Amino acid sequence: MIDRDESSRRVSRLLGVARRLQDPDDPLGSEARRRLPEVTALSPEGVELALGEHLEVDAPRDEIAALCERAGRSPCCHVVVSANVCTAVLRALATALATSPVVRLRPSRRDPVLAQLLVRALEEDAAVERAPRSSTVRRGADSQPPPPMEVTLVEAVAPAAGDELHVYGVDATVQLHREQHPTALLRGHGTGLGVAVVAEGADLDDAAVCAAADVVPFDQRGCLSPRFVLVEGGPDRARAFAEQLHESLRALSAQVPRGRVDERLGAEIARQRSTLEAVGSWLEGPHHAVGLDPDPRALPLPPAARIAHVVPARAQTASQLLERWATWIATVGAAGDGALLETVHALAPRARRAPLGRMQRPPFDGPVDLRQL
Amino acid sequence: VLSADTSATSETLHQRVRAFIEASAAGAPAPTAERFDELALEVARFQAAHVPPVARLWQARRVALHRAADVRALPGLPTDVFRLARVAAHAPELDVRVFRTSGTTQGAEARGEHPMRTTRTYEQAALSWGARLLWPDGPPARAIVLAAHPRQAPDSSLSFMLELFVRSWNAPASWHFAPYARVLDARGVAEAAAEARAAGEPVMVLGTSFAFVHLDEATHGLDLRLPPGSSAMQTGGFKGRSREVSHPEMRALIATSFGLDEARVVAEYGMTELSSQLYEGTLAGRGRAGVYLPPPWMRVDAVDPSTLEPLAPGDVGIARIVDLANVDSALVVQTADRVRWVDGGIELLGRQPGAVPRGCSLAIDQVLGRDAEGER
Prior knowledge:
The complex is a heterodimer of chains A (373) and B (376).
Chain A: H1 2-22, H2 27-40, H3 44-53, H4 61-70, E1 77-81, H5 88-99, E2 102-106, H6 113-130, E3 150-153, E4 164-168, H7 171-180, E5 185-189, E6 193-198, H8 204-215, E7 226-232, H9 235-255, H10 263-279, E8 281-285, E9 288-292, E10 307-313, H11 315-322, E11 329-335, H12 339-347, E12 352-355
Parallel strand pairs in A: 1-2, 1-4, 2-3, 4-5, 6-7, 6-11, 7-10, 9-10, 11-12
Antiparallel strand pairs in A: 8-9
Chain B: H1 4-25, H2 33-50, H3 52-60, E1 77-78, H4 81-84, E2 97-100, E3 113-116, H5 120-133, E4 142-146, H6 157-169, E5 173-175, E6 177-178, E7 183-184, H7 186-199, E8 203-208, H8 209-218, E9 231-235, H9 247-258, E10 265-269, E11 278-280, E12 291-293, E13 298-303, E14 317-323, E15 332-342, E16 345-351, H10 364-367
Parallel strand pairs in B: 1-15, 4-5, 4-8, 8-9, 9-10
Antiparallel strand pairs in B: 2-3, 6-7, 10-11, 11-12, 12-16, 13-14, 14-15, 15-16
Helix pairs in contact in B: 1-2, 1-5, 2-3, 5-6, 8-9
């Protein structure tokens, strides 16, 4: 119990210092906002949305307790964050600190910003704690000293036998680390996708607003972002939803524009556009698109660039459509419930489940992606 | 089902395309660009009226076919569409063949389909260009085929084409690949090679890339040398069925295995979604290895991957292919293969890479089994 309490206190301390990154007036928060648009290719508004709304600094105590309960125990926890959305390093670090007071963190080479700033925030916090206190600035009688913890950025991980190694990356990266560190206890989290289900009784307008709120954060680059939307019913209902989603995305994108689209992403979008124009229809705005296939044989993966692929579906047809994607489904968002949703849940039993509009806000009770490689 | 008028239009267009192929194969003056465009635009108008995916794409792009004078103005149907929708001017009841993609990289449920109401135009296109570039000095006396026989793979356009070739040669042929067992009969290949050596008759070996690699791995101690005048044609990717080998290595591997000069080894570029093929021209003394020559009834443009607009010759883009022989499906096919026009043909430069992942969302390259350029 003491051990779990210590874990919780380490996680809480991390979330406490992370608030500085959320605050645009804090030097660290300011630096994050300056550096992240370049490395993430999100728009400044997209970065603000990520830091302001999706940096999980306010996790409830019971969720932190659940995170610590789920975590393992290890003398040292090594973390590789090679492919993730920018704010995800906070949960990765929290999971590691729930596991061990000693964490070695190898951040993404492409996007090391929040990892660097979080470690700096922890160091500055520790320095304040170490500083001599004046008689007027004393810790309250009931407060405890901060829990001992050591978080270090490293260029490469080197886990000892029995250490935990948490890898967040493409599946091949997870496999590579498994081969390189056979004696470590590896917890791997690969890439994934989100699937949204609009059930038969759901209000289409509400569902579209909620789905848009799930698509926009991180420009759909997270494994919790919905890429496919299955609308229970026939093609007319799917079309009505697609049109509503198009409008909702247009409205939301006016406030939070999509970030940079580079040449390769542009090429993927161009191909998807032509494909959907031939197969069904394609509704495109300056910062998003909605593809509709009214009679789907298969689901083509849309580029991760605020592009939703909408199809009509029934419980009887969903298995055939989703079978190929099932192992990659990290979350299922739903408006309403019913037979179609049950089928999707059965296909992806380890996926997180969320109401539509909350897909990007899973409880802080473990890794966002509960599928483990 | 096609109306009588539609069926008649389709048949007339097929006849005209076959006449076009015949004229160019007979060494008639090269068809002028106007004639190609004229015929292509007639096929395009037919497809705009009768092939729903093509019609939807061109409608979405507001293509004014009645005013179009240049087939280069027509958007290409992405190859992906062949696995998402039926691409045909006719009803399924009229299919005489449905060629399907292998499904090894996309998953069995997502196999692309190319339905055929008639295979006559396909056959003429394949034989005409094959005769020019694969057997320019006359049909080979024998054939060794490292691919599945059409009886075992009735929906494989490659098997169909290879069987068409050997039938047209009226030559003894042996087939050495069992697709379901995925077994290559290396000893049988060696026996066929020995028979050819004994008869002193040149052989053409026809096979898929992965079959040649499997053969290479299975023939230690076996003598595969072929008589003088023999040659080999290799096609297709590896699709995870064997180790991957670069194109120059593959040519050297085949040449070494069969005792051939490297110039006697040619590669083909074809796909289920097309009715015509491209070959390296080395056997015909046209062009160099690595440059693929399209037939006169086909046009290949390198287009910008983002704008899909044609690029200047020499620029690298993705291949948009106009295949006149695709009368009942899609005249203009948009591939994701990177190409560059050079020396009268195209160089193949691999598939257009997907976007660099910037998060943990699934990337298309991962689905296709390619490196997603994730960090290591």
